[in-house]
Design a protein that fits this description.
5 strands; alpha+beta; 30% helix; 193 residues; five-stranded mixed sheet
């Protein structure tokens, strides 16, 4: 004999499935809870949330989708993903991951770019500035190269420098300013050195 909750869940699941393809099928948890209560079901919001999640149902989100990365225009194209989401390394200076973040201060925003060695998980280069531009990320990369060279951890060929596809990283292809190094160091998004 099934429990009362199992029986109740089965009736509510049938009611939820009946809304698929109807205007009510676009409701989220709150509106769906109110709708089921209007239909005579005694139901809590957490129950509707659980059952909708179990059935793979979700409400329609209004507004435009938030875009975090804007595709580059012109001749720039993304470099291939050489890491393929594998952020482990067998030795130092084989894979570096780059990103930046920002924080609000009393004087405005401060942007910080950093370079992390995937082997040691240590930040090997960083740069903080009040302007978010290409120089911020290239300076962090130059610092990482300088620090590794001066700590007797020379960076050899084969280093993979991985970053997101943001415009700052893509723009660095045009502003290559690393003297004495292979010019491919700043190749767009992800590139083997």
């Amino acid at each position: 004999m099934p429990s009362a909750r199992t029986v109740s869940d089965a009736h509510l699941t049938d009611a939820l499935r009946a809304t698929v393809g109807t205007p009510e099928g676009m409701y989220g948890r709150r509106k769906m809870t109110a709708y089921l209560r209007r239909q005579g079901h005694r139901v809590a919001g957490c129950t509707v949330d659980r059952l909708m999640r179990d059935e793979g149902l979700s409400g329609v989100i209004r507004g435009r989708k938030h875009r975090t990365t804007i595709a580059a225009k012109g001749e720039c194209r993304r470099a291939p993903d050489l890491l393929d989401r594998d952020f482990t390394a067998a030795a130092p200076n084989r894979k570096w991951v780059t990103d930046f973040t920002y924080t609000r201060t009393w004087m405005g925003f401060v942007y910080v770019a950093f370079v992390v060695d995937c082997f040691s998980r240590a930040i090997v280069g960083w740069h903080a500035t009040t302007v978010k531009d290409t120089a911020m990320v290239t300076t962090a990369l130059k610092m990482a190269l300088w620090r590794r060279d001066h700590a007797d951890h020379r960076v050899d060929a084969g280093l993979i420098h991985h970053s997101d596809a943001g415009s700052i990283y893509v723009d660095s292809v045009r502003r290559n300013s690393c003297p004495g190094r292979d010019r491919s160091i700043y190749r767009q998004r992800r590139r083997r050195l």
